[in-house]
């Protein structure tokens, strides 16, 4: 067979190499650097193409594409959300993503994004809390102790100075798993038997559950003044975690309103209910936290720009590591017009070799 040219190869970051890259850099450093990358892209938000994710819903889950471009680089993520997968021993969320050069359309990198999505979601949460949470917050309640929980806790530790995480899940085995994984990570870890117990003394409340339904993880009477709520689990139509009355008492901050109004907690509210876009807070065009008694809510559903930031971060960190494989992905004939001839030459080369 004909040997592919250098142009044919696209770097691919496998799950194994993603794990090795994260361990090579250090997980808290990765989270901190990712948060900085995401914040920098939020600061140039108007430059990006923006569209709600393209979703294919079924009665068991959703499959989505999340594209964006800053005019120089294009990126997309494929991601699913299937809550019933856990019963089959499968991941609820899986993902992969691609970066491409806008000038040529050629791919720059293909990467796993199941692990990377967990990292970027946690980094985004902590980055938002840096702007919205009460000053000096040191304790977080983590309601929902599934695949995302440890990433959230470590991101808040690294970026916001979190010292204590209070864990609760309806499945005690999930809480035991999260507590075990967080042992020795520099946090005080307190397993709790109810959401109410977990919230006691917490200045930050993170909800991150998987059920695809209108759920009430937090009721209005559970949430006092002055807290910051990081709502992660509500991320598609018909899936929420917070009682509507909590939303009515909160200052609500979102990524991209046209998407969040369909998928986030605010799908419970009127279409014109006021919200603030987080990028405007970062650029000084809007207020974040105003006073100590204010309840702030980051209604996080995940947006394509965050994935774009994460892919660019990984791409920038690959050089010199060898933590990728070259995939023969792009047909590269000697004459760009002669793709068929490339097949014929391959056939001839194969016959000669035989």
UniProtKB/TrEMBL annotation:
<dbReference type="InterPro" id="IPR023401">
    <property type="entry name" value="ODC_N"/>
</dbReference>
<dbReference type="Pfam" id="PF02423">
    <property type="entry name" value="OCD_Mu_crystall"/>
</dbReference>
<dbReference type="InterPro" id="IPR003462">
    <property type="entry name" value="ODC_Mu_crystall"/>
</dbReference>
<protein>
    <submittedName>
        <fullName>Ornithine cyclodeaminase</fullName>
    </submittedName>
</protein>
<dbReference type="InterPro" id="IPR036291">
    <property type="entry name" value="NAD(P)-bd_dom_sf"/>
</dbReference>
């Amino acid at each position: 067979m004909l040997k592919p040219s250098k142009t044919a190869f696209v770097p691919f970051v496998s799950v194994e190499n993603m794990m090795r890259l994260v361990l090579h850099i250090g997980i808290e450093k990765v989270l901190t650097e990712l948060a900085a990358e995401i914040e920098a892209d939020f600061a140039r938000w108007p430059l990006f193409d923006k569209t709600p994710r393209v979703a294919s819903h079924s009665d068991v889950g959703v499959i989505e594409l999340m594209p964006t471009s800053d005019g120089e680089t294009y990126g997309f993520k494929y991601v699913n959300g299937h809550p019933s997968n856990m019963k089959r021993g499968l991941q609820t969320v899986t993902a992969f993503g691609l970066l491409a050069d806008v000038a040529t359309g050629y791919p720059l990198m293909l990467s796993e994004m199941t692990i990377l999505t967990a990292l970027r979601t946690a980094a985004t949460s902590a980055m938002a809390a840096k702007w919205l949470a009460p000053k000096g917050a040191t304790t977080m309640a983590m309601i929902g102790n599934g695949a995302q929980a440890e990433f959230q806790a470590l991101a808040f530790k690294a970026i916001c100075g979190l010292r204590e995480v209070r864990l609760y899940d309806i499945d005690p085995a999930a809480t035991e798993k999260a507590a075990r994984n967080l042992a020795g990570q520099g946090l005080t870890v307190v397993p709790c038997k109810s959401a109410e117990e977990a919230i006691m003394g917490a200045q930050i409340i993170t909800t991150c559950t998987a059920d695809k339904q209108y759920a009430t993880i937090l009721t209005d009477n559970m949430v006092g003044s002055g807290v910051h709520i990081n709502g992660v689990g509500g991320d598609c139509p018909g899936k929420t975690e917070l009682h509507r009355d909590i939303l009515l008492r909160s200052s609500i901050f979102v990524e991209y309103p046209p998407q969040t109004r369909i998928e986030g907690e605010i799908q419970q509210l009127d279409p014109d209910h006021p919200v603030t876009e987080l990028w405007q807070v970062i650029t000084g065009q809007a207020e974040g936290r105003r006073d100590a008694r204010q309840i702030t809510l980051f209604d996080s559903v995940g947006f394509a720009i965050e994935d774009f930031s994460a892919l660019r971060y990984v791409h920038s960190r690959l050089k010199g590591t060898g933590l990728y494989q070259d995939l023969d992905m792009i047909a590269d004939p000697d004459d760009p017009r002669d793709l068929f001839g490339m097949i014929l030459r391959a056939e001839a080369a194969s016959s000669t070799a035989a």
